[in-house]
Amino acid sequence: MTRFTVNGQPVHYRMDPETPLLWALRDASNLTGTKYGCGTGDCGACTVHIDGEAVRSCTVTIAAVEGSFVTTIEALSRDRSHPVQQAWVADSVPQCGFCQPGMIMAAAALIEKNPNPTDAEIDAAITNICRCGTYPRVRNAIRRATRVRAGIERIAAPPPPGGSDGSEQS
Questions:
Q1: DSSP label at residue 20
Q2: Could you tell me if 28 and 2 are in contact, meaning their C-beta atoms sit under 8 angstroms apart?
Q3: How do strand 9-13 and strand 2-6 relate by DSSP bridges?
Q4: Cα(144)–Cα(140) distance, rounded to whole angstroms?
Q5: Which tens digits make up the pLDDT trace of 100-142?
Q6: Residues of 25-57 as b/e, b for ≥16 C-beta within 10 angstroms?
Q7: Which runs of consecutive H residues, i.e. helices, occur in the chain?
Q8: How far apart are CA 74 and CA 7, in angstroms?
Q9: How many CA atoms within 13 Å lie on the side-chain side of 14?
Q10: What is the pLDDT of residues 46-92, one digit of tens each?
Q11: What is the distance between the alpha carbons of residues 31 and 170, in angstroms, rounded to a whole number?
Q12: How far apart are CA 120 and CA 83, in angstroms?
């Protein structure tokens, strides 16, 4: 019996304690915005926040997160108003979109800890793999998100509905 909080709601998974968090989120909680990519923690498609830290959910068991607070892309902001989500859309970051939830979660954790990261700090923190090669747009979007978060810049329109935040169901 494993208990922790997911997206603000207490959960109790009756699964093998060695089950990767990724599969508990996707299969038991139907939170499919967290993607399965490599299963080894290399690609970052499964990135979620555990107690505010960006963590690759395929590499951590549900037993290891007992008592923790887990946030998935679905709860980063319910209305897609998070500065990273807004900047992602404004800078047209997604191409195929598969890696985007993990990248957005990694970027959100980065700017929470470091409100004005340098390019080197962005590159060090965002090690997610994007097969479409959107890395320059990712970096630009993170810079824009820091300006939005600081109140220096405003993005005129909210992101459109329909999964532009990378949380489309699949």
A1: B
A2: no
A3: antiparallel
A4: 6
A5: 999 999 999 999 999 999 999 999 999 999 999 999 999 999 9
A6: bbeebebbbbbbbeeebebbbbbbbbeeebbbb
A7: 21-23, 73-76, 83-90, 100-113, 119-125, 135-150
A8: 8
A9: 0
A10: 999 999 999 999 999 999 999 999 999 999 998 889 999 999 999 99
A11: 10
A12: 20
What is the rounded CA–CA span in Å between residue 169 and residue 31?
Answer: 8
Side-chain half-sphere CA neighbours of 13 within 13 A: 27
The token pair that represents 56 in the structure block: 């690759």
Place of tokens 């489309």: 168
Closest by CA to 90, choosing from 140, 129, 132, 133, is 140
Dihedral-angle region of residue 39 (phi above 0 means left; psi in -120 to 50 means alpha; beta otherwise): left
Domains located in the chain, CATH noted: 2-75 (3.10.20.30), 83-150 (1.10.150.120)
Residue type, 96: C
User: Which residues make Cβ contacts (< 8 Å) with residue 68, sequence separation at least 6?
Assistant: 4, 5, 50, 51
* R_g of the chain, CA atoms, integer Å: 15
pTM: 0.90
Q: What residues contact residue 154 under an 8 Å CB cut-off, 6+ apart?
A: 148
